[in-house]
Write a structure and sequence with these properties.
mainly alpha, transmembrane helix, 79 residues, 2 helices, flat, transmembrane, Secreted protein
Length: 79
């Protein structure tokens, strides 16, 4: 049992180390350097950001959940 645990711990350590190295290597180190043809637009305001990343997904979730609940055929109807 002890050898299996050691193998699992070693495997978890190797996977964690490899993932960390890959994340460090792929970090945007040169993100401030502009490329040819790079034309960034103006930034979003706080309201636009909240609307885009919070409100719209919540509304879409509600619409999809409502459609699923409306078309659910497994509800028992009182007789």
């Amino acid at each position: 049992m002890d050898k299996k645990l050691n193998k699992k711990v070693m495997r978890a350590g190797v996977v964690t180390a490899a993932t960390t190295v890959m994340l460090l290597v792929s970090s945007p180190a040169f993100a401030l350097t502009r490329d040819d043809g790079d034309d960034p637009g103006s930034g979003l305001s706080v309201i636009q950001t909240l609307g885009l990343f919070v409100a719209i997904p919540l509304v879409l979730f509600g619409i999809i959940a409502g459609c699923v609940m409306a078309t659910d055929k497994t509800r028992k109807h009182p007789s």
